[in-house]
Amino acid sequence: MAHEVNPSVHPAVVELREMLQRELSDRFVRLYHSGSRVEGGADPEFDYDLVCITTLPLTRDEEEYLLERQLDIQMDRGVLFDLYYYCEEELHGGVTSLSPFVQRINEKLVRV
Description:
about 110 residues, alpha+beta, 4 strands, 5 helices, about 45% helix, Beta Polymerase, domain 2
């Protein structure tokens, strides 16, 4: 699945998105930026705040596996990711959607 990439998106973020697409397959919905890199004022040394949306929740084992892949990219590229996983249902309904953090994410997401 090819996507046009915003040239301002760091290559490590693109690599992370491609890894998530590959590993999650049809459960991957999209990857978003959030935080100071979206809102402005981010220092070049700051981490990349990212939110991965999936069709279904991930198991703990799946998250741990993906974290290992994420760490490989971080080490190779010399960047840090702060990556959260949410399924579509969690963002748009239920108790999780009432969290101030999730509400802020819903307002400030920028597609990668």
